[in-house]
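Researcher: Go.
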Amino acid sequence: MRYFASLLLLFFLSAQASAQDRPWVPQDLKPWEGWVLYGQEHSLCPPLAGDPAQRQCLFPTRLSFIADGSGGTFTTTWRVFAAQNVPLPVAPGLWPATVKLNGHPAAVIDQGGTPTVRLEPGEHQITGQLPWKRRPKAVRIAPQTGVLELLVDGVPVTAPKLGPDGNLDISGQSASKAPEDSVSVKVFRLLRDGVPMTVTTLARLEVSGRARTIVLDGLLPEGTLPMAVNSPVQVGFGPAGQVMAQAGAGRYDLEITSRFAQPGLAFGPAITPFGREVWAFAADPALRELQLRGLSSIDPQTTDLPDAWKKYPAYLADTGATLAMEVIRRGESGPRGDDLHIKRTFWLDFDGSGATAQDHVTGTMRSGWSLTMLPPGELGRAALPGKELPLVLLGKEKLSGVELREASVNLT
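Model: Structure:
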């Protein structure tokens, strides 16, 4: 009976909701939540994108650390989906003091030499101090921390050095001032028709000077929501849609794919804070045929578009320009042709006068529904998996071939 009740309750519990926010659980079953979830708290944690079988229950979203000659002060924010101990900033020979959880004093637990605080599901803020007489070169924090703010001797460190083992450099060497900071940005966009319509924004950055946070305001088009980021440097998003990249001197390509929140047939008026942009458009003939107006066309081969985008029509966009799209036709203009692939193996006769061939034909047939062998070849046998096919004479030429009755082809 307990096994049946457990299965029933776990069906209603979302893996991404906190223990306090599950309104879809029936009222009659709510008193049993704690009993059913005992020992299964991890089932409430969100799955990893790369491996859905694995779940992550702790997310260190933000850490602010201020270091000076007398000690360090930290404020860290955690998102917790199952009750667990979370680590605090620590250094060899040091231990956190005056630790508070959500503004109230908290007990620090020694877990194998690591100071931790017990957190229940939800979002929590932990504050504390790390006093020292001699400042260490580094403190150990959660290496998965999302946003990191570091202040050393009153100087902000715009590109904190955080190693894969979680060691955060607080020596102050990275806080030195660079003589000059500059950045140039070129923007390219690929509009891809579909449901929903998406736009891939490629920002090419040339950065000089010290490592810092570069704010790209107006990079993403209005009315779009970011879905994916491909970047060699860390990228974040501000509350007003700004794109923030942590980068030092060098050249970087930031590629952000966004979707339009609302369907429409116009893109613009364009906001081009980094100068004239080049747009490319990838049509979807299976969905509809569009006619584009409002922008000046340009030969994509003469632009700096990525090579993979140069097969699409390209346009120049300035501030205030609008790309209007008119639907000419919905769906394909005609039936699609056959999509067949052939793998052929030859065996040459010993005397060289002839050869034997075996063809493996796979794919999809949408018309015709028959295959023939052209001269001088002579068809000797044809078979589908587990089924021999009769050979017939087809067409006016009476060519030897086979007739097919299914669109999916796997013929030998």
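Model: The radius of gyration is 31 Å.
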